[in-house]
Amino acid sequence: CGGVGDQGCASCGDRPCSSFAPHCTVCKFKAHKRCAVRATNNCKWTTLASIGTEIIEDEDGWLEGNLPVSARCAVCDRTCGSVRRLQDWRCLWCKAIVHSACKELFGKRCPLGQYKVSIIPPTALNSIDSDGFWKATCPSTCSSPLLAFVNSKSGDNQGVKFLRKFKQFLNPAQVFDLMNGGPHLGLRLFQKFSTFRILVCGGDGSVGWVLSEIDALGLHKQCQLGVLPLGTGNDLARVLGWGSLCDDDTQLLQILEKLERATTKMLDRWSVLTYEAPKQSPPA
pTM value? Predict the structure, then answer.
């Protein structure tokens, strides 16, 4: 729970919530503690827990109210919204804000926003087959989707902030916590895509973990990997040009833009095996 400022309750409507009211970290759905049990669970994002027969197939991601101060309508460019009650609408995917009266004029199909190249629309995730893979239809706007792995324990648990931010900007089905099952599930779900990109948020150990799993699944020709360095010991991130540390989750959109413009470098990986030779008896 928590939040910033008083906002309208998404359950009872006009009565504002306090700064510490329960809220969804993905869609910012906010309600009084006493209203939370009656709140409609209409967050349209696809989460890891919902992967299965209930994959979301509707791109309608409009949420009413709780708009930023001085928000402007994407249709008429006039100020809209209210911090004291539910009023007007915002799209969870492309972040567009519109008046209730202008909503029908905005368009039926969501453009997915500035970073649509990285986003997998929920309509592209049709179902899960018997082998546990997505039956995915990759649209032209998403020719190389992004798979994000975050080590939530990295950087003195600062990875949790990036985990939440990625779920807000991407489809949460693209975001995996390495501390909750490792990289295998995410790579299995993505391996039916002909090409995809990977962003590992963590230290050198996290990157090595993901690379080892890529080796095991034989996905070298399908994916490229970028690094968002967290914590300490980020020698690999420095060598590859990603810097030594990133601890500001407010720069995430700039990071996504950098990832989309990044060039590919070859990485030589090898193993060293050491063993102790048997001791030889001294000559008699």
Answer: 0.72
